[in-house]
Amino acid sequence: MSTPGAPLVWCFGSGGEIELSLTVDRRSICVYIVERDQDVTLRSASELVAWLNANKAGSLQDPTSGMVDKLKGGKLFKWG
């Protein structure tokens, strides 16, 4: 579990509900799965991408046109 107060880095959801949220804590990437009240700890961005592809592939697609969806979608994996 991430440090209390660690800032939210990214989240994914649909229909106005957050399904996944992501925080970074020291050397770990922590994915919180709301539906299961479960944390998954990953060590790198490549592990995160692999986990998302296997568990929530839609989260890596460009966000829909709504402002809330754009804010939730972010551009975490688009560098430069």
Your description of this structure?
- This protein has a domain at 8-57.
- 22% of the residues lie in helices and 34% in strands.
- With 80 residues, the protein is of the alpha+beta class.
- The model has no long low-confidence stretch (mean pLDDT 75).
- The radius of gyration is 12 Å and the shape is globular.
- It has a 4-stranded antiparallel sheet.
- The chain has 2 helices and 4 strands.
- A hairpin with a 4-residue loop joins β3 (28-33) and β4 (38-42).
- The N and C termini lie far apart (30 Å).
Side by side, the strands of the main sheet go: 1-2-3-4
Assembly context of the chains: single chain
| Average pLDDT reading | 75
Strand segment count:
4
Order of helices and strands: EEEEHH
Return the structural class.
Answer: alpha+beta
Helical segment count: 2
User: Kindly, what is the distance between the CA atoms of the first and last residues, rounded to a whole number of angstroms?
Assistant: 30 Å
Write down the Rg: 12 Å
Helix content: 10-25%
* Uncertain residue ranges: none
Q: How much strand content do the residues show?
A: 25-35%
Could you give a short account of the major beta sheet? 4 strands, antiparallel
The shape, in one word, is globular
Task: Give the arrangement of secondary structure elements.
Blueprint: E1 8-14, E2 17-25, E3 28-33, E4 38-42, H1 45-55, H2 67-73
Antiparallel strand pairs: 1-2, 2-3, 3-4
